[in-house]
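Quick question, first post here. What does this chain look like in 3D?
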Amino acid sequence: MTEAEAMTALAELTDIATAQTSVWLSLTFTYLTVAYLAGKKLSRFQCLAISALYTVTAGFFGSAMMLHSQA
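> Answer (accepted):
Ran it through. Tokens below.
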């Protein structure tokens, strides 16, 4: 791999990491907004469902960011 190809690959990885970070921030803001505004009105199942969904997706984003940083 030439130096120019390596720089292009690094720029693409940076773009992907930036996009994933913005999606994670949006997801976190949405989760916190729902928890704050509708938290007391949600049933126990709904609270567990959104918490589990957030935890799983945050785990995916975290592992993807670790893999991108290692690449």
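The helical segments are 3-38, 44-70.
The chain has one domain: 14-70.
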